[in-house]
């Protein structure tokens, strides 16, 4: 069966080469961006592996195309987006979680993660893209009450964490937010009693009512930007400015956001 599949893919690749690249004087290679199971046969003078790992591409024909771009000829492996563990300056990043539930926007331009679905991970790593489109929002109540969740990693594509998105995740101890996040909505992390510290990216300009209420162990909120913060009873009401020197102290910021001033919404760059 594997041999038959590989043969079909090879034939399709050669047909594409005839249709799309007639007149090309230099030989090119074909790469596929999906997991392939190939027989132990010789391909372009090289023994093909029996299994090609996710995130790799396999040479099976006479030209190379990736995302509509012709790649230089040669037998190489090109890492694909959203596959496996990726390397960064800080070392490898964890693989994205599989089985999460998503909803596409009405205009078909982005996705919202709306639930844990069939995912059984204790560390939830939300992908930056799904089916070629950005994942921009964590939906209202998406992971609320998820007691199996101990860690959450959000990519830079996420712009907003919805109301009560992680509320009641009582074992959630580590949250990694990325630059690009703009809003943390009301009760987003309420009653996350295992959360002890969190860093708020500079891009965040709004933290909703009770966003960290009931986070009894939250002892450190590190604000990347200290200037221009205020708290108010609503987004359109007058706000009380907070001195940057006060918010530099992460323990004070934690006490404000999780207890004494958690009943207000917090905004930056609006008043004062």
Notes on the structure:
- The protein is of the alpha/beta class and 272 residues long.
- 12% of the residues lie in helices and 24% in strands.
- The chain is built from 3 helices and 21 strands.
- Strands 7, 8, 10, 11, 13, 15, 17, 19, 20 and 21 form a 10-stranded mixed β-sheet that branches. It has a 3-stranded parallel β-sheet with strand order 9-12-14, with no helix packed on it. A two-stranded antiparallel ribbon has the order 1-2.
- The radius of gyration is 24 Å and the shape is globular.
Main beta sheet, described? Answer: 10 strands, mixed
Portion of residues in beta strands equals: 15-25%
The helix/strand order is HEEEEEEEEEEEEEEEEEEEEHHE
Give the N-terminus to C-terminus distance in angstroms: 68 Å
How many alpha or pi helices?
Answer: 3
Poorly predicted regions:
24-88
Number of strands: 21
Approximate helicity band:
10-25%
Could you report the average pLDDT, rounded to the nearest whole number?
78
Shape: globular
Radius of gyration: 24 Å
Structural class: alpha/beta
Label this structure with key terms.
21 strands, alpha/beta, globular, three-stranded parallel beta sheet, 272 residues, ten-stranded mixed beta sheet
Layout of helices and strands, plus pairs?
Blueprint: H1 2-20, E1 42-43, E2 46-47, E3 65-66, E4 69-70, E5 86-88, E6 91-93, E7 101-104, E8 111-115, E9 123-125, E10 129-130, E11 133-138, E12 151-153, E13 160-161, E14 174-176, E15 183-184, E16 197-200, E17 206-207, E18 220-223, E19 229-232, E20 240-241, H2 244-247, H3 250-260, E21 265-268
Parallel strand pairs: 8-11, 9-12, 11-13, 12-14, 13-15, 15-17, 16-18
Antiparallel strand pairs: 1-2, 3-4, 5-6, 7-8, 10-11, 17-21, 19-20, 19-21
């Amino acid at each position: 069966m594997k041999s038959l599949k590989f043969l079909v893919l090879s034939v399709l690749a050669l047909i594409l080469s005839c249709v799309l690249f007639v007149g090309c004087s230099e030989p090119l290679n074909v790469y596929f961006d999906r997991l392939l199971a190939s027989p132990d046969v010789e391909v372009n003078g090289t023994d093909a592996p029996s299994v090609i790992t996710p995130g790799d591409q396999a040479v099976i024909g006479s030209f190379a195309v990736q995302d509509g771009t012709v790649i230089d000829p040669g037998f190489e492996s090109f890492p694909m987006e959203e596959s496996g563990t990726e390397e960064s300056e800080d070392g490898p990043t964890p693989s994205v979680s599989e089985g999460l539930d998503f909803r596409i926007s009405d205009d078909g331009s982005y996705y919202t993660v709306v639930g844990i679905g069939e995912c059984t991970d204790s560390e939830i790593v939300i992908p930056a893209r799904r089916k070629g489109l950005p994942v921009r929002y964590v939906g209202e109540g998406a992971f609320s009450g998820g007691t199996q969740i101990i860690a959450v990693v959000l990519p830079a594509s996420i712009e907003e964490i919805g109301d009560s998105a992680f509320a009641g995740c009582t074992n959630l101890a580590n949250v990694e937010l990325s630059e690009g996040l703009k809003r943390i909505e009301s009760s987003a992390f309420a009653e996350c009693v295992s959360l002890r510290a969190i860093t708020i990216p500079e891009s965040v300009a709004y933290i909703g009512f009770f966003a960290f209420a009931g986070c009894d162990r939250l002892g450190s909120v590190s604000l990347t930007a200290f200037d221009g913060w205020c708290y108010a009873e609503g987004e359109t009401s007058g706000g009380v400015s907070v001195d940057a020197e006060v918010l530099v102290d992460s323990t004070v910021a934690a006490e404000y956001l999780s207890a004494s001033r958690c009943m207000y919404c917090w905004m930056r760059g609006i008043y004062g």
